[in-house]
Amino acid sequence: xxxxxxxxxxxxxxxxxxxxxxxFITACxxxxxxxxxxxxxxxxLLVGFGTSFPELVVSLIAALKGNSGIAIGNAIGSNIANxxxxxxxxxxxxxxxxxxxxxxxxxxxxxxxxxxxGLLFWDNQITRLDGLLLIALLIxxxxxxxxxxxxxxxxxxxxxxxxxxxxxxxxxxxxxIWWLVGLVxxxxxxxxxxxxxxxxxxxxxxxxxxxxxxxxxxxxSLPELAATVVSAWRGEHDIAIGNVVGSNIFNLLxxxxxxxxxxxxxxxxxxxxxxxxxxxxxxVLLWLFAFFPIHKKNIGRLEAxxxxxxxxxxxxxxxxx
Length: 321
Description:
CATH class: Mainly Alpha
Shape: globular
Radius of gyration: 19 Å
Number of domains: 1
Structural class: mainly alpha
């Protein structure tokens, strides 16, 4: 197979993954609406977590193929890309002002979950016990989200009002059809993406982990980029950042357990000394921008430029190292 065919396969995989994720999330939101789920819960679960479904499927398939490097790299790299690339590009296009009190509660959760992952990584291994612990934390977080979404106090939160406007109008039958179509495309695209990324790694003589951190992570972050830019452009700033925060929590609590449960073992080199610290630093920076704004916009073009520059520098350093 030539370079042209491999790159074409990679691009087709990324394109189908982005389209399939959009169809899947829209269908899930419509189905949930038909069954009477509160708009805030639909948004928190399906928009925030749903945009990470590509990462979940890609890491699941990579782990089942015995490729822990892509599976782990995708989870960590996607969190880095979500903050550096997605928030960076979005806030350059439309500076973001955060009003949601609920969103400000989620930021400390993201920081805490990131810290827990760092502690689990400390022995330079990822075990099934680590995976089970992260799944337990995911269940606890989902329970908290359901309680919050049903709270009358937050029923008129800024983010809840934005979600109400965005609920899709679709018949239940059509929603189920699109749900199935989106799911099929997600799995088919993930196969293409994992296979082409592994081939590129072999040909370039670099590790699958590096490919997972960079090419695969950016590819699976495109649904977040599309959803976040569109939300910010429409003035739905809380949804824009909610997409990223929810997605990053889901990446750590649901995506990372895939390789832990299926193919546990030693962590890739440099993860603890380079990649995890970068992820943690960007996470804390985003939290500080949200809580301690230096102007009316929590994340203006100055902050966006800093995040994007940090992401580009990290990508260049990682690929050149």
